Structures are given as structure tokens and as C-alpha cells.
Amino acid sequence: MTLHALISGAGIAGPALAHQLNARGWQTTVVERHPQRRDEGQNVDIRGAAREVVRIMGIDEAVRAANTGEVGMRFVRADGSAAASFPVDASGESDGPTAELEILRGELSRILVERTEAQTDYRFGTQLSDVVDHGDHVTAVLDDGTSVDADLLVIAEGLHSRSRRFVTGAEVAPLGMYLAYVTVARRDDDGRWWNWQHVSRSRSVHVRPDNLGTMRAVLTFISDVRGIDNLDRADQIAILRSTFADAGGAAPRILDELDQGAPMYFSTVGQVHTPTWSKGRVTLLGDTAFCNATFGGAGTSLALIGAYILAGELGAAADHRAALASYQRLMKPFVGAAPAVSASGLRMMNPRTETGIRVIHAGARLATSPIGKTIGKVAGRGFAGVRLPLPDYPVP
């Protein structure tokens, strides 16, 4: 009998799991509340054991072909001059802010969906509204009035999952930072560096290259005000204009493009650590279950590793209970190896004063200093340094 998995979420973790389950003979259905696959988003990187998962999945060539071409990260002053630089190490040994496998989130999602859409039933524009676990199967009621019966329901909706409640009441812990991701036109003088411009009062401006002929910008700021991410676009842009009016550097360019309708995705940095990832025939995957921070570099790698381990255990275990228990046990060390991003660390990396910015620039040159180590945690370094071995799952 063919087993059926219903997966909620068509970002990275969901399609990656569908890919691995399809290889093991499962039927897969993916539901996604957005009307189509989401192309927006910024650079994500693939580190540590996730690089081996990409190779096992057979998508490494496609990922490399879609590489952003970023040559490293550097702190820049408002005039564009570099204060400290971290070039990429193609060997993957130094674990710098830019990974060897650096790809846009939308491009990685595209690759995964394209590799699975022939075998997976994708249903966009709908989401879970209720779940009934019958013991021998689970029924998911969708908000379009239909329902789906499956042997397993996997919720892979990201940090701000609306369906996590079917497994746990764990809440997202906000870290006080907001991010506006903006796609802007590429200019002749744009290089291949990730430029990080610090601005006083805990603000930052990031501009990064992509492989699609545009540039990916991020405006970040720290605030005690909650709920800005729930406002409409016009209000968010008004807040960004007020917040970055005196920032200089690349900020005016980004604000002008926002006024001209540039694509923007507004989010907040948060964490969630759920005590249990499964309940009956329902389980959580990716940032829905384990998220050290939505800004820090480890989330995509953990999503890929989690999909690989969950599919492997489902294929190897005698029943779903044993598989889900093993999945959480085997995945925990990888989650524990992710950089520990904290509100205090984010504030250290985004100083309030010009003096603090100068200290950041000076300390960035010393990788072993407290500032250097914090840079590693916030900018993505450290996760690949813990090279945990992957379980070996033979694929039929």
C-alpha cells in the first residue's frame, strides 16, 4: 500500500521532504496558503551536513548554477569604503558569512518544486483550518472547503506558522529586530560583495548581489514596538522612510525604489523552540519546530537536514511513532549546533552610537574577539564548524 504524506508549506523544508519521500515511494501532497510559489526573499546559504544532503538529493549542480556569485561580506562606511572584509573561502573550512553554496531563497524553492511537481500534488492558495487524527490516519480540513486524508501530516510553514497549534502551544519569542527585504535594480558600480552599512541608533543597511540581474537589499532596525510587521505596505514604507531618513549610503537608493513599487517582504526576527515536534500523526519540520533566528544563516541548512532525516526515518522505522521519535532524537544535535542568536547579540552587532560602530569595525578584524565571535553567530558562521555525520539511509 502506498503511504501518503500531506505537507503544509511550499517553502524549502516542505518540497525538500516531498523530494525525499517521493524517492521512497510515498505519495505527497503540498498545500500552501500563498497563491503561487514565493519568489521573494534574500540570500540563504547551505552549510555543513546540508551540503551532503544537497548532493544526495542530486540537486547540487542546479544549486551551484544558481549561485549568487557573492564573493564575501564587508562592513562599509556611508561613503562606500570598506572597514573590514570577510571573503568567501571556497574550501568551506572558514565558515565565513558568505557560504560556498549561496543561493536566493526563491531560487532554491524553485529548484525543489521543479524537481517534485511531477510526483507531488501542489495546491496553492489554501491552508489548514482543522486537523482530525483518527489514529490510523489523519484528516486535514482545508480552508477551501476540501479535506485530505493522509497517513502523516507534516507542518513546514516557517517561524510564524499558523498551524503549529495542532502539535504545541509554543509561542514565537521576538528578538526586537525588524527586516525589510527589498529587490532593487542593479547599477553599473554594484559589485559582488555583501555590503553591510552600520547606522547609529541600531540600524543597518545591507546590499547583496543575486544571479538574476538585480540586487537584494535589507533595511534592519531594532525597536521595542511590536506589531510593525502586521501593518500594510504603505505604513511600513512610511516607518522605513522616517527611520532611515538620515542614514545616507545606500539607504536613499532603497527608499526611492520602494516608492517606485520595488518588491518588499517585511518580517521580524524571532525564535521558537518547541518541546515536542510531534503529536500522533502530525509532526513539525524546519523553522516551525526549531528556529534559532530568522536572521543567522542556519535555518535553510536545518530545513534540508531535517527533511532528509524525517524521510529517512519514515522509510526505515516500523511505524510512524518510532520514526517520529527517532527523527526528533537524531535531529536535536544538529539544532543544538546552530549559532545561538540572542537579542543582546543583535544589539551588539547593531550599535546605537558612532563610537560603537567604530568599535565593531575594529573588532571585526579580530576573529577571536567577542565582537568577532558575535559576527560569526549573527552572520552565519559557526554552523558548518560542527560537522556532525548524517545518518545513512539507503534509497530504494
TrEMBL record:
<keyword id="KW-0503">Monooxygenase</keyword>
<feature type="domain" description="FAD-binding">
    <location>
        <begin position="4"/>
        <end position="334"/>
    </location>
</feature>
<keyword id="KW-0560">Oxidoreductase</keyword>
<protein>
    <submittedName>
        <fullName>FAD-dependent monooxygenase</fullName>
    </submittedName>
</protein>
<dbReference type="InterPro" id="IPR002938">
    <property type="entry name" value="FAD-bd"/>
</dbReference>
<dbReference type="InterPro" id="IPR036188">
    <property type="entry name" value="FAD/NAD-bd_sf"/>
</dbReference>
<dbReference type="InterPro" id="IPR051704">
    <property type="entry name" value="FAD_aromatic-hydroxylase"/>
</dbReference>
<dbReference type="GO" id="GO:0071949">
    <property type="term" value="F:FAD binding"/>
</dbReference>
<dbReference type="GO" id="GO:0004497">
    <property type="term" value="F:monooxygenase activity"/>
</dbReference>
<dbReference type="Pfam" id="PF01494">
    <property type="entry name" value="FAD_binding_3"/>
</dbReference>
